[in-house]
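Retro notes, item 3 of 5
We never archived the inputs for the magnesium ion complex last cycle. Fixing that now. Sequence and ligand:
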Amino acid sequence: EAKRHRDGDPQRFHQAQEDELEERLTLEGELRRAIYNHELCLHLQPQVDEQRRVIGAEALVRWSHPERGNISPGRFIPLAEETGLILPLGLWVLKEGCRILGEWCQDPGYHHLKLSLNVSVRQFQQPNFVDQVLASIEQYAAPAERLTLELTESLFLNDPEGTVQKMTELRKKGIRFALDDFGTGYSSLAYLKALPLDTLKIDIAFVRDLTLNMQATPIAGTIIALAESLGLAVIAEGVETEDQREVLAHLGCSTYQGFLFGRPVPVESFLPEVLTDTSATSTQQSTSNPPA
Ligand code: C2E
Ligand code: MG
Ligand code: MG
Ligand code: MG
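Structure as it came back at the time:
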């Protein structure tokens, strides 16, 4: 009785709010520091074709905090969006992504790989976004046609015309666009048709409950059919089981991403995995050309 009374105490409620605010302010300061002190890094998760060949990767930002350990993007990306820190963070991701692509380009083992980067709405809506992308590509001599930018449906909510214009400009340079988490947002079919997209990413929510003994037509199937009718490619996200892969393949999906094929890993660990197919040739090469 007394406890219940205390819990309802407005002063206590106020204290909890203050604690939360303080925690956020601390985290905000630390994130600001992290962006400029290189505590962030990109991990890469493979994207594979029907034959499970790695055709590219999605870059996912990671924050390893010196005292708190790894902080998940689910916690700090929303904070970054609210505070505006997503702008320097997003620019860092863009540059680091282009640096990686530029490096792959130098190596015949990797130069076929595509890289996808997540772009926040706020970042995309900056007036100089197009310039930032083009400058980053140029700085690292990254092949534009192997760069995909992942956008989310919330872009539809305001300034659809500006969105189309920016996408069109970047697409002329060869950059591609994927719509992330498709099916969870607000997109209308009219906008979907108007946007110069290349790929729809089926959200994990529609992959999670796919099973082999499915009776009803799963939503994933509807999305795949929709993509086909719009002339778009499809990637299924969050594929964890062989059953899910099989159902998706049956529904006509041809590109996959998920723990079944590989978790996000540091850039250095990603590359050797890609090369496993050609390891015989690279071994031979390293024998005939011993390191200096
Ligand atoms: P997203 O872009 O939809 O990324 C996919 C998320 O699903 C990643 O979570 C990935 O680790 C996770 N995932 C991949 N395969 C599986 C699977 O088989 N099962 C399960 N359960 N999960 C899987 P992560 O890395 O925690 O990122 C969460 C979100 O944070 C991303 O969702 C994206 O919206 C955002 N994010 C990550 N990196 C960046 C970035 O560089 N910039 C921006 N703006 N947002 C980012
Ligand atoms: Mg994504
Ligand atoms: Mg996604
Ligand atoms: Mg997501």
